[in-house]
Design brief:
Blueprint (H helix, E strand, L loop, with lengths): L9 H16 L3 E5 L5 H6 L7 E6 L2 H7 L7 H5 L6 E7 L14 E5 L7 H15 L3 E7 L24 H5 L3 E5 L13 E7 L6 H8 L6 E8 L5 H25 L4 H7 L22 H6 L7 H6 L2 E3 L2 E5 H5 L2 H7 L2 H8 L11 E5 L2 H4 L1
Parallel strand pairs: 1-2, 1-4, 2-3, 4-5
Antiparallel strand pairs: 3-8, 5-7, 6-7, 9-10, 10-11
The chain binds S-adenosylmethionine and magnesium ion.
Amino acid sequence: MEPVVFKPPLYQQRYQFVKSYVDTYKPKKVADLGCSECALLHTLRFWDCIEVLVGLDIDEDVLRRKMHTLTPLAAHYLEPSKTSLTVNLYQGSVTQKDPALLGFDLITCIELIEHLKADDLADFREVLFGFMAPFTVIISTPNAEFNILLPKCTGFRHPDHKFEWNRREFQSWVEFTGVGEPLQDSKNVGFCSQIAVFTRNYTESEESLKRKMEYKSVYKTVLHAVYPSLQEEKYLRQAVQKVALFHAYQIKANFLQQFIPKEENEESHNTDTEDEEPHNTDNEHGHCMDLKLTSKWPTLPQTEQDENMEPFLQGDTLYVPLQKIFCVPKVKELCGNMDNLRTMITGEATLSTDGNAILYHVDLENSF
Ligand SMILES: C[S@@+](CC[C@H](N)C(=O)[O-])C[C@H]1O[C@@H](n2cnc3c(N)ncnc32)[C@H](O)[C@@H]1O
Ligand SMILES: [Mg+2]
């Protein structure tokens, strides 16, 4: 018999099933029970909608071996994401009730239930649907009928399996679907992995939730990782400072271009191509860089809008208006309004007394 080959591999199709659900329904709190090597959690980690990601497994060693795959890296601190994410890994049994798993939008149990003994399976059903009661549960488990298409499979698919259900056993209590279809001319055996999706059709009362929250914690925390995000004041402040002060510096550099003596300006651009923008004609003033030039400046702007927007020199102080920095789309997106911009750069830049401009000391005579 031709061995059945799944493309992509079956485990990836199971994960894809969950990812498609997440794409469609955008759950915020997601837990994976029997998460083992945390592979599903790892792929779900950067789904923007997910704010809390939890893994539970009875095997602490497997969690400890893989938990590093879920901790934030230096790159996450350099570029914090817009949305917040907390990842918790717990060691414990799915037959135990712990408030840590209350209030979830989605709980997945991928190839878990067949590892539970009959008693534990009964307890788990009560824990999952009675206590945890998430909005949605996705359960996948092997389909025993498919095993005739798996030549190497003589008993159960895995020595630790306590049972493998046929479709009827599973279908009697679930909305029925699955991944891993048999070839077209194969027998009608159903999917290789059977998948059940349960959706809660009632709203839990606050009183009931409160009662459950009072249960004693029993799981052991193996990992608690909070990813840096722009939801946190300190990371937002850092991001604003980085982008705003970079642009302020660029505005300053562009402004000062016009004072660079012509020859030097040409030298520094001796690799210019024809494609580049023509040089600012103000540079025609040549290299006689003296204070006459600076006193020629500022040509203070005419309209009020210009006044708010354009950098200008007063003596040896360059004013870079916050309004101009605020017009940079990324700055606007991060700050929302000018007051926030002002607050977040205070302390990192010197501001004018009215707080409307960043000040730079410039020494035009000795700068070029
Ligand atoms: C086949 S593995 C799950 C694979 C994983 N969900 C995936 O898709 O990659 C089954 C996992 O269930 C865990 N497990 C078995 N009994 C458990 C229990 N009572 N409570 C929590 N986890 C349990 C095992 O330690 C094992 O890691
Ligand atoms: Mg299994």
